[in-house]
Specification:
Rossmann fold; 18% strand; alpha/beta; binds 2-phosphoglycolic acid; eight-stranded parallel beta sheet; 30% helix; 7 helices
Length: 253
């Protein structure tokens, strides 16, 4: 895995946006795998700035989001649909028909067939070029919680207590309001992307980053599977990198 240690959140965000912008200029019909959470917000802001100030063109881009809660209406403020429109899609020129976010409003019994369709759509458009990833404190990528099969595909996943506790801050601190289930791309789905771009910032992520980069590959830290990917880049700020013991690229901007 290529690890780049950066000064802070701002530098992480700008460097991540630059990776995407460089690829997008080379391949206008880029297929982007996107993530939600606090981590990629700065990256989206920088991409929006590049769109508005430098004319970075997203008109041919196709996107697939990693995951979505089950049971929240799409217009619920904490749905990942709302998140993506608020933080990215409403500010750039990706046609709506080219945007894919798992549909968490379907009845449970219809979701497995829907997940198969989602996988098929990714293949139909030629696969994901760059998959952006955050990491959970428990080492999850997407909502692939510890114990997830490292070969898993898009499916329903039960959220870990740790994840629901972390996300309770978005639901007025009420863990009972956090959905219990989500649709997530599988670890196997993620690993088929041509490039993985993992972002991590802050001391809360330091332990998960250490396990991901320097620990054994294990389903108990799903992000550790990135060690097997031929083109995985992790951009980690100093605080999240504080437990790493080996030598890495350093970019202090
Ligand atoms: P965060 O979430 O970016 O809000 O820290 C990351 C994740 O849970 O994957």
């Amino acid at each position: 895995m290529r690890v780049i240690i950066v000064k802070d959140y701002d530098r992480m965000s700008k460097l991540a946006a630059k990776f995407i912008a460089d690829e997008l200029r080379r391949k206008p019909a880029l297929v982007l795998g996107l993530a939600t959470g606090s981590t990629p917000i700065g990256m989206y802001q920088e991409l929006i700035r590049m769109h508005k100030e430098e004319g970075l063109d997203f008109s041919k881009v196709i996107t697939f989001n990693l995951d979505e809660y089950i049971g929240l209406p799409k217009d619920h403020p904490e749905s990942y649909h709302s998140f993506m429109w608020k933080h990215f899609f409403q500010h750039v020129n990706i046609p709506e028909s080219q945007i894919h976010i798992p549909d968490g409003t379907l009845p449970m019994e219809d979701i497995p067939a829907y997940c198969e369709w989602y996988e098929k759509r990714i293949k139909e458009v030629g696969g994901i070029d760059i998959q952006v990833l955050g990491i959970g404190r428990d080492g999850h990528i997407g909502f692939n919680e510890p114990g997830s099969s490292l070969g898993s595909r898009t499916r329903i996943k039960t959220l870990a207590r740790e994840t629901r506790e972390d996300n309770a801050r978005f639901f007025d601190g009420n863990i009972d309001a956090v959905p219990k289930y989500a649709i997530t791309m599988g670890v196997g789905t993620i690993m088929e992307a041509r490039m993985l771009l993992l972002l991590a910032s802050g001391p809360n992520k330091a332990e998960a980053v250490k396990k991901t980069v320097e620990g054994p590959i294990t389903a108990m830290c799903p992000a550790s599977i990135m060690q097997l990917h031929p083109k995985a880049v992790a951009i980690i700020d100093q605080e999240a990198a504080k437990y790493l013991e080996r030598e890495y690229e350093v970019d202090m901007g």
